[in-house]
Model the fold of this input.
Amino acid sequence: MSRMFVPGPVDVSDEVLQAQTRPMLPHRSKEFEGIFRRASEKAQQLFFTSQRVFLVASSGTGLQEAAVRNLVDRKVLACVNGAFADRWYEVAASNAKDAEKLEFDWGQPVDPARVREAVRRGGHEAVLVVHNETSTGLQNPVREIAEAVAEVAPETLVVVDAVSSLGGSLIDMDAWGLDMVLTSSQKCLALPPGLALAAVSDRAMSKAQNVKYRGWYFDLVRMEKHRLKDSSPATPAMSLIFALDHQLDRILAEGLEARFARHAAMARRVQEWAEAHDQSVYAPPGFRSQTVTTVKNERRIDISALNAFLGERGMRLANGYGPLKDITYRIAHMGDTDLQDIEQLLAALEEFLARQGKSA
Ligand SMILES: Cc1ncc(COP(=O)(O)O)c(C=O)c1O
Done:
């Protein structure tokens, strides 16, 4: 199997690929509805929530759009310190919402104090925040941000993009008071792309009831009516649900704490390796992603040549994203990747650097 150290789509185990090959069922059958319910109930554990989890045939961006269409009538605050947060702001603006962009330096976390000041001025129906910025490899302090919002604007919903972290590091939705947390299948869950998951609180559902023009496909109120019958308004991505059902068993068998610890150990190893080889990690200590490390390419490694070299060894990593494309590269350590895989990658990186006369 290839080793994809890119931040999604990541490698999918043979077992999970196999689970997709199960024959189709009528989607309105008891048999399929049972699998749909089971998968959605197991998924609640990933979000640390007793709230509903929707399984949607879409990538994560679809649910970024669902969040703004369902939870915002007029005004929303988008916290932006990276490329995917910026995309979410654009999603909100392009849905004709009055989107206020609260910008931060991309190398710094979203500051809860500034969020508090912004929402104190009032009128924001929701705050959008990306937990794990896949462009910068930075993890935002979502818990503290949610606390800051609750302090001064308790009616404002807190909506979190956990596309590249849910299942890889802790997001305690209920304890942290989050209203919607969304993710995609192709990252920490180590599934093929095409499925998106969102946990949504009761108060977010009540808000949605009163928001106009929620659209049809991503209408959470419509989805909820169907979910209560273990179903979805439109045909579900059945093969992906089979895969999710199987992969959730594997994830829960590993144990979430063990899974988070595995990711943390890989993150530490990659960070230490980068620093030991005269390269800095883009995100500051204390806010570094557990699932993807963005390294400043201070040694001017030719990433295309590196990937050609890695490709001969069945591996691949990612160059920078957006404006960071040519000045950083990214090593993902998410999904089913383990420390041994990371050691193999780092050994190959060292061999490449040595061949280029760049060994430390
Ligand atoms: C943090 C974050 N948000 C949103 C997205 C978009 O997700 P998708 O590609 O599943 O639509 C990505 C994709 O990489 C991401 O990393």
